[in-house]
Amino acid sequence: MSELRCVIEGVGGYLPERVMTNAELAGMVDTSDEWIRERTGIRERHIAADDELTSDIATAAAKAALDHAGIDVSEVDLIVLATTTPDQTFPATATAVQAKLGMEGGAAFDVQAVCSGFLFALATADSMMKQGLFKTAIVIGAETFTRILDWSDRGTCVLFGDGGGAVVMRAIDAAEAGERGLIAHHVRTDGRKSDLLHVDGGVSSTGTVGQVRMIGNQVFKHAVTNISSAVRAVLEETGYSADDIDWFVPHQANQRILDGVAKKLKIDEAKVVSTVALHGNTSAASIPLALWTAVQDGRIKSGDLILSEAMGGGFSWGASLFRY
Ligand code: UT7
């Protein structure tokens, strides 16, 4: 059998209509627009409507990605959805997306790696597709993350937002792909650090959903270190250097983390795609949303070399390199 390679054929995104500004938050907790902007770069975030589910957001993003790719849903045989905020404990929210898209076959499942989820989902789909298990996939990151926030905790509630992003991928003959496609992934976790970023509830522990708890400044320090090591791993494995990267599309947790990582890795700041000001941290959705933003506005073009990275609860972290 000839070697297969996964290429990204389309990118889509969706943001709920309602926008919450820093000023609005300042009316709810002891914070200020100035503090949030200075410490995070966030100006506003989108909040899902009461009747809007993660599967609705994921489906909208998936449809946009299919339209962008010009691929009919009947060709899709795999959905991998990264989310921390599923519609229900089971079944997987990906199966709700499968039904909402009108798919009659294939397979759909969720991946849970919190803010790093999209990279874990991408690596999972890529591996399965290169084995020949599936031909056309939608890989989605979608969240209603604001549903698990403690709106009285100023250390967390100012940071997060809702949204979804998706890519449509095809496994094709590597010779036909040329230089395009997914090149390398590096994903890691360290379960010993989960106390620094977690929710204080769960199905088998409390029987509740729980709310986000985070020791922000400690997560911050680990984020810059872990992300930099993951990025170095993919660069070393592939022989590319930071100079070769056309666009750096990181997880959008905090502008200071984006800047810190770019500086540490000597990535030109003009190549950093930042959406944190307008989206906040949308967890697993942030990378595909940033990708979608930069594809839509014409910055990212076919053939560009893209580096993505993320770090989140678990701790989980990773990096992916691909040629769009
Ligand atoms: O995506 C998943 C991974 N998550 C992350 O990567 C998040 C990583 N962490 C961060 O982004 C930052 O640590 C935060 C933005 C969460 C916090 O920024 P910081 O510069 O690390 O602040 P800090 O936690 O050290 O707190 C400094 C001060 C504290 O007051 P005192 O003790 O110095 O009096 C906090 O109580 O800022 C206070 N503070 C706030 N003040 C106004 C914390 N949150 C707020 C707030 N408004 N919203």
Task: Write up what this structure looks like.
The protein is of the alpha/beta class and 324 residues long. It folds into 2 domains: 4-177, Peroxisomal Thiolase, Chain A, domain 1 (3-Layer(aba) Sandwich); 181-323, Peroxisomal Thiolase, Chain A, domain 1. Helices cover 33% and strands 26% of the residues. The strands form 4 sheets. Strands 1-7-6-4-5 form a 5-stranded mixed β-sheet, with helices on both faces. Strand 12 (305-312) and strand 13 form a beta hairpin. Helix 3 (54-69) packs across helix 4 and helix 8 packs parallel to helix 9.
Strand order of the largest sheet: 1-7-6-4-5
Sketch the topology as an H/E string, one letter per element. EEHHEHEHEHEHEHEEEHEHHHEE
- As a percent range, the share of helical residues equals 25-40%
At the fold tier of CATH, the topology name of the largest domain is: Peroxisomal Thiolase, Chain A, domain 1
Q: How far is it from the N-terminal to the C-terminal residue, by CA?
A: 25 Å
What's the number of structural domains?
2
CATH superfamily of the largest domain: Thiolase/Chalcone synthase
Q: In terms of quaternary structure, what is this?
A: single chain
**What's the alpha carbon Rg, rounded to whole Å?**
18 Å
Biggest beta-sheet profile: 5 strands, mixed
Shape: globular
Number of helices: 11
What would CATH call the class of the largest domain? Alpha Beta
Task: Give the overall average pLDDT.
Answer: 97
* Count of individual beta strands: 13
Quickly give the structural class: alpha/beta
